[in-house]
Write a structure and sequence with these properties.
There is one protein chain. Helix 1 packs parallel to helix 5 and helix 4 packs across helix 5. This protein has a domain of 254 residues: Penicillin V Acylase, Chain A, CATH 3.60.60.10. The chain is globular. The chain is built from 12 helices and 14 strands. The protein has an 8-stranded mixed β-sheet.
């Protein structure tokens, strides 16, 4: 199996420690990650330029579109708009450009089928040491791999959390001190509308103290669309919450394992899928991940990492290498792979494709 050579990253992603008010947290992220934030803005601008024939959307047009979503987020979650404003101030970039990054799927009308992520979880019944584990492969444009970093946040009013992020995005993939972990997978419903951007919705989940509070955040009114939120609690309770702008379905883990990719699993939400034939690769990844999860009776961090390296259906495999695809809307790769040990409050992350890069360990000090 010939593979296109990928960057080798023996070093861990940068760790950024932030604390204080939401504005201060955003500003500290922007200051510490100025290079990454500005680079991600450049990447987004180039992506829209390259995809102009399909999207007919300029960078200026994207900023105009993104402005329509901000008032909805401002009304419900002003604290996270404060974080975005802080990131813009700290990195010295216009707020409007940060807004585009955080509403990219919305302003491009979900034409970006780039987010081909894979998420998994196993509870204490299916692990060798009785720990609760969650795993996620983050797939995105290869140019943004340089922009990955880890945020250790101690907000003034919310629970401390540890999250993976990149560029100028709000953090959302991670876990907090109350034993709430969230992994997100893009899904493509046909009822999207102008409302609260998905990234803002998912950012609010990291502030939850209970599973019910987390779900209420996922289902906030006036949301623009939705993700699949794979929600894990330290008790071993695990759910997939499939969300669109107006509908949702909650799937409960069976036999101590759970997996999700980028298509709807519930019959109710499947009726809202925008283009079922466009997510065939997602279905293959889902069935592959589910089979591998079920095949091991007692999982460890290493068994989940082995699944994250899987290359069945290469290059659109769980470990994604699809950088040789010429369509800018479908060109992606795994830019980070992480395993969360929720019981130990640890995150193990490989920067880049996990088949070629080592995992590094980060702890939530809370």
């Amino acid at each position: 199996m010939a593979q296109q050579k990928q960057p080798i990253r023996p070093n861990p992603p940068p760790l950024v420690r932030v604390s204080g008010t939401h504005r201060e947290i955003g500003r500290q992220i922007g200051e510490a990650c100025t290079v990454q934030v500005r680079h991600s803005v450049e990447n987004a601008r180039k992506l829209l330029d390259d995809a102009y024939e399909q999207l007919e959307l300029t960078w200026d047009g994207a900023q105009i579109q993104a402005r329509k979503y901000i008032p909805f987020a401002q009304e419900r979650y002003p604290q996270y708009i404060e974080e975005l404003q802080g990131i813009a101030e700290g990195a010295g970039v216009p707020f409007e450009e940060i807004a585009v990054l955080n509403a990219m799927e919305a302003v491009t009308m979900d034409a970006l089928h780039l987010t081909t992520c894979t998420s998994m979880a196993v509870n204490e019944l299916r692990t060798a040491d009785g720990h609760v584990l969650a795993a996620h492969n983050e797939d995105w444009v290869p140019e943004d791999e340089d922009d990955v970093f880890i945020i250790h946040a101690t907000p003034r009013e919310d629970p401390p959390f540890l999250a993976m992020s990149y560029g100028g995005l709000l953090p959302n993939v991670g876990f907090n001190a109350y034993g709430i972990a969230q992994l997100i997978d893009s899904v493509y419903p046909n009822d999207s509308r102008i409302g609260i951007p998905r990234l803002v919705v998912s950012r609010a989940v990291l502030a939850a103290k209970t599973p019910a509070e987390a779900m209420r955040a996922m289902l906030v009114s006036h949301r623009a669309a939705g993700y699949n939120h794979l929600l894990v609690h330290e008790s071993g309770e695990m759910y997939c919450v499939e969300v669109s702008s107006r509908s949702f379905e909650i799937l409960y883990a069976e036999a101590g394992v759970l997996a999700h990719t980028n298509h709807f699993l519930s019959a109710k939400m499947l009726e809202l899928e925008k283009d079922p034939s466009g997510v065939i690769n997602s279905r293959i990844r889902y069935y592959r991940a589910a089979r591998l999860l079920k095949a091991t009776e007692k999982h460890t961090i290493k068994t989940l990492q082995a699944i994250q390296r899987d290359h069945v259906n290469f290059s659109n495999s769980i470990c994604n290498h699809a950088v040789d695809i010429h369509d800018p809307l479908d060109r992606e790769k795994t830019i980070a792979a992480l395993v969360i040990d929720l019981t130990a409050r640890e995150m193990h992350i490989a920067w880049g494709n996990p088949c070629e890069n080592p995992y590094h360990t980060y702890h939530l000090d809370a």
